[in-house]
Amino acid sequence: MSDHDAGRRPGFAAERRERILRLLRANGSMSLRELASAVHASEVTVRRDLRALAADGLLDRRHGGAMLPGGLTREAPYREKTGVATAEKAAIAEYAAGLVEDGDAIVLGGGTTTHELARRLTGRRDLTVVTNSLLVAEALADAPGAEVVMTGGALRGPIRALVGGAAERSLAGTHVRRAFVSGNGVSAARGLSTPNMAVAGVDRAMAEAAAEVIALADHTKVGADTMFQTVPPDRVSLLVTDAAAPPAELAALRAAGVRVHVVTP
Amino acid sequence: MSDHDAGRRPGFAAERRERILRLLRANGSMSLRELASAVHASEVTVRRDLRALAADGLLDRRHGGAMLPGGLTREAPYREKTGVATAEKAAIAEYAAGLVEDGDAIVLGGGTTTHELARRLTGRRDLTVVTNSLLVAEALADAPGAEVVMTGGALRGPIRALVGGAAERSLAGTHVRRAFVSGNGVSAARGLSTPNMAVAGVDRAMAEAAAEVIALADHTKVGADTMFQTVPPDRVSLLVTDAAAPPAELAALRAAGVRVHVVTP
DNA sequence: GACCCGGCGATCGAATATGGTCGGTTCCGA
DNA sequence: TCGGAACCGACCATATTCGATCGCCGGGTC
């Protein structure tokens, strides 16, 4: 049932409000701008929708966006001043979302950037997403066109991701076109890396399971090198980063055979 | 437009309305234009159909289309604030939490009651919890004394649980002392049951993985019998329910060898 | 064969939704 | 504390949808 553009259905008002609620429940809170772009409506219209929904007590309006009512459940301020490089991550995720087509089967790793990416895939049709991240799974749980498969494994609380032998084994049997992974550092010398051994194992397994590995890394990670190497440079087919990344490192990465796409927030 | 004659003559109209209902149930909501094109009728005709169906309470009309009744308010079944038997579920979870000791390894199934139970285990020490529920995992993610292991599997969105062959296989290798499962019905005749086949498979695997199966079921489920049997009565070692459960059924369960504990909210 | 009747589609005024813009307010960083 | 940027509510023009009326078609009846 994929007419044209994903999610660009002619849908009507009540359905749009339903989608807004779903998006909010998946993400805890969202800015007005995010919502408007997600449901393909103007900010004025979304503002009206939020007003109506808030009148019914279905959400809480805040300056600049909305969040779940009574929700101490998840304190995720939509304007995350605590998060570093939020705008950059969003822009990177936005571009990465454009790489995903209806009917794709992809692997999504853990991390805030991949979470952002997942949130942008709710409108896709006939999508299969393999992930070890609770955040990714939750973001896509209500997406009608997405089949979400989780790896098993031990839960690593702080990052809400599954790791360990079980996670790696469950990935061993799968093969997909593309894996989107994040990691804590990416350099021309050692490729993707992460400071945690268990996480590294899963990231390696994810890279193994995919024909193409696409690295999502904001500028704070480019040139960084942490303890465990996960994906060597020649296995990274594309790096998506933002304009603040050190040009020298990007050049070195290109020289190492990595395609690099730079987005501007 | 006489409603009586509609049943006598299986004309095109009745069939078209059936199809409209089917489409709506499949998609949740559809715009008038989509429906008209789907059933190959004019928008005016579909509008008439919608009016008639809405009069019977079979759907909710909205400007621009229609959706399933109740749509906006009971969107997220698991986050139900006004859910049924909330106090009872809490009391059941409270008692069940008392059955869990430091150092235990347990299996927690999906459902709101097990979610409540998980939330009461955050203070335990040296606990290992195997679960297929995203809600349980999330509830224990920040608990310092709990090691959470998730089964893999396909995500079943509405209940936030992992199901399917992968989930069952990952449970095959585990063995724990106790499994806490909920299900949609429990009766002396057929034990625990659930209306979904995939969920049933996982519940069975969970029961297999545990030495003891403890069923958590509020009174609305006692005596209920849904399509797929998951755990036979003689494998349920303890049923925790609330005081509003039908006494006859509880007696029958006891006669079947099930220990029954009744909590008062 | 003429008539009636239920269902369907087309059309038009009315109601509603949408998006752009303007002025006042709130928020954030300096 | 202050200035700028972002956000909000309100107004208006436009686009879309709704409800009602009408005419057409096919089948059944007298």
TrEMBL record, chains A, B:
The protein's name is: DeoR/GlpR transcriptional regulator
Species, as recorded: Bailinhaonella thermotolerans
InterPro entries documented for this protein:
Carb_Metab_HTH_regulators (IPR050313), DeoR-like_C (IPR014036), DeoR_HTH (IPR001034), NagB/RpiA_transferase-like (IPR037171), Tscrpt_reg_HTH_DeoR_CS (IPR018356), WH-like_DNA-bd_sf (IPR036388), WH_DNA-bd_sf (IPR036390)
Residue ranges of domain HTH deoR-type in the record = 13-68
According to its UniProt record, what is one Pfam family this protein matches? HTH_DeoR
Any single GO molecular-function term of the entry would be: DNA-binding transcription factor activity
Q: Which UniProt keywords apply?
A: DNA-binding, Transcription, Transcription regulation
The organism's place on the tree of life at top rank: Bacteria
